[in-house]
Amino acid sequence: xxxxxxxxxxxxxxxxxxxxxxxxxxxxxxxxxxxxxxxxxxxxxxxxxxxxxxxxxxxxxxxxxxxxxxxxxxxxxxxxxxxxxxxxxxxxxxxxxxxxxxxxxxxxxxxxxxxxxx
Amino acid sequence: xxxxxxxxxxxxxxxxxxxxxxxxxxxxxxxxxxxxxxxxxxxxxxxxxxxxxxxxxxxxxxxxxxxxxxxxxxxxxxxxxxxxxxxxxxxxxxxxxxxxxxxxxxxxx
Lengths: 118, 109
Known about the structure:
The structure holds 2 protein chains of 2 kinds.
Chain A: E1 4-7, E2 10-13, E3 19-25, E4 32-38, E5 45-51, E6 57-58, E7 67-73, E8 76-81, E9 90-97, E10 108-109, E11 113-117
Parallel strand pairs in A: 2-11
Antiparallel strand pairs in A: 1-3, 3-8, 4-5, 4-9, 5-6, 7-8, 9-10, 9-11
Chain B: E1 4-6, E2 11-14, E3 19-25, E4 32-38, E5 45-50, E6 55-57, E7 60-65, E8 70-75, E9 84-91, E10 97-99, E11 103-108
């Protein structure tokens, strides 16, 4: 199956710092990538849809200036959590759908990045 | 009201038991439906799609009732390795997946 790599897997940072998470599709091109966040015992919540070469579409309640998304190529999207605070501590997961499978329900997920803000 | 609702469980069943999970969705325009499996601290992985006519994959059977906006997953002959969280997932327009909170299953020896 298609492979999505996410980095870093774990990150611990001080409050007020910024953290960048990378999401790469290794063996396919993805015009669209999705960023989800999952708090303990909660469902995956879609944060934003990242479109290659254009601005991301953010879900209601997600601050676009705090969660910066860049999708500069067909295989890479980045999420930067700016001025992170303890309430931003969560499991961030990216996912991608191959460009030639727009209607499939199978998203390929990265391994997730667990962010802890002290 | 959440778009996708599931009973969080946990469901504790002995090996070999049959267990069923249910899920309801609120958007009548939803297009496609899936069950994903998520192990602790791991990313979700597709278990199976859910078709209107119902479909089976080995020990797993999925069913969809569009009129009632209801999806189910049946697991027969439970194995220890089936222990995980099962996520009900709905695909609406816009190509983003909406996830339920998940139902936790623990299969015991």
